[in-house]
Amino acid sequence: MEHEMGERAAAEAAAPSAGEAEESAESLRAQLEQARAEAQENFGKYQRALADYQNFKRRTDEQRAEYRRDANAALVINILPAIDDLDRALASVDAKLAGLQWIEGIRAIQRKFQGALAALDVTEIDADGAAFDPRLHEAISHTPGEEGKVTQVVQKGYAIGDRVIRPAMVMVGNGEADDSGQPATGNQE
Fold first, then answer.
1. pLDDT higher than threshold 70 for residue 181
2. Where do the structural domains in the chain lie, given as residue ranges?
3. Residue 136 gets which letter from DSSP?
4. How many angstroms separate the CA atoms of 108 and 40, rounded?
5. How far is it, in rounded angstroms, from Cα 136 to Cα 124?
6. Across 48-156, where does the E strand assignment appear?
7. Running DSSP on this structure, what letter comes out for residue 148?
8. Which of 57-69 are b and which e, b meaning 16 or more Cβ less than 10 Å from the residue's Cβ?
9. Per residue in 150-162, pLDDT tens?
């Protein structure tokens, strides 16, 4: 019995009183709330860091693509004069020479250049007969013809995607009658 009384006294001494238990529970609740607030703050920081990383990745991908386009544009701008010369040379080939093998070889080279331009997403600006657009065309003179329409392409223009790398050099109609004596209007049939 003494032994039981000693155990009971030890248990009572070890067991916190009701006030102490409530105080301990409040302390634990406060710690839990603090831990939750800290976890929420850390989660917010994580979300902001993730968003910053995704924005950084998107910007660097866009910059990389822009650098690639710029490098391709620089390359194309440097080879366009050679392509222009090749086009002019082939356009002026005499009909007697047109069927010769070496002329066909030069035409094959021209097709390879055109294929290389297509692979770089380079397109020719369609200008012949089109309405003059200062974003796509560079007017070098006015000629008789329908006003505001391209009457002749002097030098081809090129674009990569929607970016003009060289505007087409064109002659633009001034609204005067052309050589046929017909007035140049938009209502001709």
1. no
2. 123-181
3. T
4. 67
5. 10
6. 122-125, 137-143, 150-155
7. T
8. eeeeeeeeeeeeb
9. 999 999 999 998 8
